[in-house]
């Protein structure tokens, strides 16, 4: 099973794997709760996949000053 989008593509958008996972998990919970996403179309069937696609499409971003810091 190949996961898309790839971690290499995602890390070109967000440098820290920890930040990437945290952002995707939070966004996936929001998508699950509201059933609203920021993409016109998506390939993923899961909320986590849609969140990752949003990151790749630069619909979700992280302030570089806070990247890698825990809330």
TrEMBL record:
GO terms for cellular component: DNA-directed RNA polymerase complex. Keywords: DNA-directed RNA polymerase, Nucleotidyltransferase, Transcription, Transferase. It comes from the Bacteria. It catalyses: RNA(n) + a ribonucleoside 5'-triphosphate = RNA(n+1) + diphosphate. Its EC number is 2.7.7.6. Gene3D superfamilies: 3.90.940.10. GO terms for molecular function: DNA binding; DNA-directed RNA polymerase activity. InterPro entries: DNA-dir_RNA_pol_omega, Pol_omega/Rpo6/RPB6, RPB6/omega-like_sf. GO terms for biological process: DNA-templated transcription. The RNAP catalytic core consists of 2 alpha, 1 beta, 1 beta' and 1 omega subunit. When a sigma factor is associated with the core the holoenzyme is formed, which can initiate transcription. Belongs to the RNA polymerase subunit omega family. Promotes RNA polymerase assembly. Latches the N- and C-terminal regions of the beta' subunit thereby facilitating its interaction with the beta and alpha subunits. This is DNA-directed RNA polymerase subunit omega. It comes from Gracilibacillus ureilyticus. The lineage of its organism: Bacteria, Bacillati, Bacillota, Bacilli, Bacillales.
């Amino acid at each position: 099973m190949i996961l898309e989008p790839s971690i290499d593509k995602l890390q070109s958008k967000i440098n820290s794997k920890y930040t990437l996972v945290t952002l995707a998990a939070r966004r996936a919970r929001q998508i699950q709760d509201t059933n609203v996403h920021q993409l016109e179309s998506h390939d993923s069937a899961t909320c986590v996949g849609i969140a990752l696609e949003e990151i790749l499409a630069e619909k979700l971003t992280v302030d570089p000053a806070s990247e890698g810091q825990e809330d």
